[in-house]
Amino acid sequence: MQIKIQPMGPxxxxxxxxxxEGKDFIIDPGVDATPWVLNNVSNPIAILNTHGHxxxxxxxxxxxxxxxIPIYCPKDxxxxxxxxPMGQGTPKSTPDYEVVGDEELTLEGITIKYxxxxxxxxxxxxxxxxxxxxxxxxxxxxxIGRWDFPASSGEEMVKSLEKxxxxxxxxxxxxxxxxxxxxxxxxxxxxxxIDQVKRLL
Length: 201
What we know:
The chain is an alpha/beta fold and 201 residues long.
């Protein structure tokens, strides 16, 4: 697996190109991501969204049009792609496939797993490819995603943190912002974050 990373836009949102067996998967093409994506793919297969916030999906439609590839997005976040609920002027895009909950997909022979961790957004998910997690805005290095946005939920965030704390094994985590980490490292601080979220409910 080869992973290319480029922070995009004012929030430095990580856009990823993941190449497996010569096939390129574009994860979270954010603000002005299109030129970088076009310059770094040779066999693009799909656009994969971790969630629907504008800084992760801004270039969905443009990349889809340029490369003629489908968009996969968690079903509960599709409204963010079509309605621009945060009023950022996000170019609208329409997913070709709506991922429901924890779902395993096979795209061109490559296994892609979505694991649903609501809280930051209703559909917020990590994308697992092999032993790597692309965590969007769920888990960061020593931190978690915000739960105070419109459509966010502290109650759901607590459930998701409890869910991820019980997952066995270890994974390298590439988040939506900042540096990579590991699941084991983040599981050590999850009890602290559960307490913090509960305290503010």
